Amino acid sequence: MLTKRIIPCLDVKNGRTVKGINFINLRDAGDPVEMAATYAEQGADELVFLDISASQEDRKTMAQWVREVAHVVNIPFTVGGGIKSANDVAPLLEAGADKVTINTAAVLNPGLIEELAKAFGSQCVVVAIDARKINNTWVVHTHGGSRPAGKKLYSWARQVAELGAGEILFTSMDHDGTQQGFAVDALLKLNTLLHIPVIASGGAGVPGHFLDAFVLGRADAALAASTFHFGKIKIPELKKFLSQHNIPVRL
Description:
This protein has 10 helices and 12 strands. By secondary structure, the protein is an alpha/beta fold. It has a single domain, classed as Aldolase class I (TIM Barrel), CATH 3.20.20. An 8-stranded parallel beta barrel has the order 1-4-5-6-7-10-11-12, surrounded by 6 helices. Helix 1 packs parallel to helix 2 (about 65-70) and helix 2 (about 65-70) runs parallel beside helix 3 (about 85-95).
């Protein structure tokens, strides 16, 4: 059985890790390179770095801090923010990233998913989907969650998989930063619909929320930010808890 992955997410803005609630009210959480090294030592399975203002500021992800992170970690890490073409991806992989994640650019140009999958392999392409419920329907948002995209979550996720994405990173904007639990119903539906792994994001607050994501939502991995950044949950204790509840994890 494949092990379930625990993935800290570092949202980077102006060279610092930040975290908010429902994608707003950001506060400083620390230096991303130092935090990456700490998480790797604690037993994180992967890391995700999101240059959260790159799309809004219409610029590319900075390769320099990707290079700095690669020097201090020995686990896979994914980088996203401002990626619009294969030319944007190559420097990030050369700097040491293992995967890239796209969101806004994929919505604006779905063909980009296929382009990147062909150029670098599906295993390299993670499509992030930020969505919130509007009139009881999950609606996809872009530009750091600031703009509704006119796409529905499940149909867009299916299209993303068909175009060659290797994974989907689904963030419930309604749950983001609330520490009240993941959107397990949406996760379950995504995992029922899709043949590619789904990473749960948005809402982790206690170890039981991760257990719910894996058991009730059937997620392949669970990602969290504030609950790790501010010390509410320690990764070794979380993995011990999951193992005790018969979730296969790398200890």
